[in-house]
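hey so u asked for the seq, here:
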Amino acid sequence: MSDQYDRLQPPFIISSIRSMPRRWEQALRVQPPKNIEDFYTVEGSSGQSAASDVGAALEQVRVLTDAIRTTSYNDPEALGSEVEAAMSDSGSGPWPASAAEALEHIESLMDTLGDRLEALHSRDWAKRARTPSGDVSIEQLGQATTRVLATRLSRVERTIREVS
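ran it, C-alpha cells below
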C-alpha cells in the first residue's frame, strides 16, 4: 500500500499525531441544540457507526504505539500479526461508551504517543523489528499510525454528517 502517508517524515508524523485530539474533537461535534451523544452509535450508510470507527482507531493505535515502543529497544522484540493488521487498518476494537469518553481516550493516547515519538533520536526512526511478513521501521509504524487515525477520522466525519 503506497499513499501520501508513506512519504511522511518524522517531524510531520509527530505534528499529525499532536493535531489529532483537536481534529477528532471537531469530528465528534454537531451544531446545538443537537447532541453528539444522540448520533455517536448510529450506523451510517457504510454500516458502521462513529463509535465503531473510534473503537477500531483506538485499538489499532494502541497496538502500533506498543510496537513503536518495543521496536525502539536496543534489541527489538518481534512484532505479531496484530501489528500488520493495525498497519493495514483492518482491525477493530471496543467502543468507548460515549463520544466524550472517546475524546478523553484519544487525547490521552495521542499525548503518550506524541511524547514517545518526540523522545526518539533521529537514528531511532530507522530501527526495525521483524513481523510475520518481513520487518518494519519505527518510521513506517508512525506512518501507519497517522494513516489509521486520518482514515478513521474521515469515516467518523462522514458518518456524523450522514446521521445528524
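The beta strands are 128-131, 134-137. Helices lie at 10-27, 50-71, 81-87, 99-119, 138-163.
lmk if thats what u needed
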